[in-house]
Structure formats: C-alpha cells, structure tokens
Amino acid sequence: MSFLKNICCSCMSRPQVRSSSEQASKPVTISVRSKSLQQVKSLIDLMQSIGESKDIATEGVFRESGPNTEHRSSVSHYRRNSNSSGFEHKFESDNILVRASALKELSKPIFTSDQVNKLAQLDLNKDKFLGEILKNKKTILYNAITLAIKVEFQKDHNNMSFNALVRGWLGTEDAIIGTVEDLQKLSAEQLLEAVGKRERVFKNLIDLLEHAKKSSQFSKFETIGDVQSIDIALLD
C-alpha cells in the first residue's frame, strides 16, 4: 500500500494539527471476531506487519467452545472460554490516527442505496468484483480505504487530519471531497469521476479492495455508543 504515500501535494501543503483534546483521547478498543481462529490471527498479523504493532498494548482474548485453556505470549494474552463459540481478539491502541472523529465517520454509510445501485450498474473498467462488492457490502469500500490510510500514514503524517488523508488519497486537488458529508452528497457518477481522475488511483482502489478481501476479509466497522471502539466482524 505504498501508493497511499503518493498523495497530492495540495493536501500535504495544508496539514491540520489536531487539538490537545484529540491527542489526549482514550485508547481505542479494537475487537476482531470470527468463527475462524486463523482469520482472526491473520488480520492481527496483517495490522502488526504494516506498522500498527508499535502503538498497540494488547490483551487478546480468543474464545472457543471447549475446555478452558490459557496461552500467553510476549505479544498477547490468549484465553479460550467455554461459554461462547468462535474467537475474539481485543486490543487497545493509542495511535493518534485511530481517534474518535475517525471512528464516528467510519460508522456512517458512505453510499445511499440509490448510489450503490448506480455504481453497480456502471462499467467499472469491466471489473465485476468492484461492482459486486459495492452492491453487496456498501460500506466496505470506504472502510478499506480508511483502514489503509490510518495504518499507512501513522509514521509520517500524524499532523494531518483524517479528512485531509481521504481527500489526498482520492486525488481531489480542488478539495470538493473534504468530508464524509461531501462524499455522501456526490452522485455515483461524480464519485466515480473523482476516484477515476487518475488511472493509477482507480487501479489502486481495486487492488486495495482485493487486498481487503483476500487478507483481512473484514465485513464492517462499527462504533458502540460513546465507547471508542472498532468492531471488525470477519467473513466466515
């Protein structure tokens, strides 16, 4: 995902520094759930391998039906619990890019049903996968972009706002897409035009969706009340 580093110069020239209140926000609890232990481990490994691990203090909990068993490692604390089926891993991160404002935006659907239907009907570079994923999982596109942006930029762009990162990734130099609300106002055609301004960006979008499908296989993010949390329910 090195392509995310090549954001437009206009966005990099206008960094937005977060307030002290944002920086002092509580750590974010991230929960990963699946019936497959391997899926959970794969996503945790993926997040750690691309830079999250240095900002994570973890206590992982894997729950599986059967006898109670405990496993400890230098990274996480794993526990099997006979009271529930499936597996779960929870950890906290104080990574500044995973913050309250971003989490609230993650919980909003990026497309209306009308936009999803129009996008699914368009000839998206003759790529059926993108059309189907938009039709069936209308939030995965924005969530995949957001996850990649947060992880990729954590080292060098901590002074940039979440929306600036989104704007930079989409390559909208005129900044017509600056917030989630701006994105929601666009028609399907306008959104596709914005993403397709550069062929490279459009290709990377498809690559990113393929990467999300094959590597992490997550289906949703959600926030629970005022609790700063991300809930990643993996596809079985």
Mean pLDDT: 41
Biggest sheet character: 4 strands, mixed
Which geometry do the CA atoms define?
globular
Binned strand content: 5-15%
Number of domains: 1
Distance between the termini: 25 Å
Helicity range: 40-55%
Q: What are the segments in which pLDDT stays under 50 over at least 5 consecutive residues?
A: 1-29, 46-87, 91-113, 115-120, 122-181, 194-236
The count of β-strands is 6
Roughly how many Å is the radius of gyration? 18 Å
Q: Strand sequence of the main sheet, in spatial order?
A: 2-5-1-6
H/I helix tally: 11
Secondary-structure-derived class: alpha+beta
Q: What is the element string, with H for helices and E for strands?
A: HHEHEEEEHHHHHHHHE
